[in-house]
Amino acid sequence: MSEPLTQEELAALRQITTPTVANAIERFQLRPRSEGFMDSTVRCLFPELGAMVGYAVTAKIAARDRPQAALPPWEMWAALEQVPGPRVVVIEDMDSPNPIGSYWGEVNGSIYQGLGCVGAVTNGGVRDLDEVRATGFHFFASCVLVSHAYVHLVEVGAPVRVGGLEVRPGDLLHGDRHGVISIPLEIVRDLPQAAAEVEQRERPIIDFARSPECSAEGLRRLLEGGH
What we know:
With 227 residues, the chain is of the alpha/beta class. The chain has helices spanning 7-14, 18-26, 73-80, 106-114, 129-133, 191-209, 216-224, and strands spanning 43-44, 52-62, 87-93, 117-122, 125-126, 138-141, 143-144, 152-156, 160-162, 165-167, 172-176, 179-183. Helix 2 (18-26) packs across helix 6 and helix 6 packs antiparallel against helix 7 (216-224).
């Protein structure tokens, strides 16, 4: 994909649930069905916000020990300019699976939202939940933490691995209460139609299953009929 998505195209993606996005991607047979999404160690903290869609900006952090050297925050801010908006900050916490210090709270949430980001995804922790929820900024994380400890940037702009998924700068992510998935850029503009086709295929099955006429034989005939 050469051009970033338009506001209308982004809005259309936000109307689709992440499981439906996963089903729609399967139709293109670009990757195994067991790949392309984060595992259950990364969960949605603010499910009431609906779907998050944005291009990934990546970094690695650590917080357990006082740093001998740390990258200044403006290196991360500069990296944002290399990725189209809206942006999702994806941070690999090097202290995982036992993170101790949160990079994400009211301050960084406000800074990154002001710089065109719509959410954060991390295998580490987050804090200041009430304050950040009120701003509409998405949090996807492995846990909730009390302190920022010695949190500092270790690396900016390299591929990261969060929730078992490798994320590169510019990857398009979709997330909601179910989790986070990466959308292949080459099929993203065809995804809403594919999602509609998934719904069209599934709806007769769901409607029949919820009807008084539902039976095993009826379901078999329905499935054999090509649905």
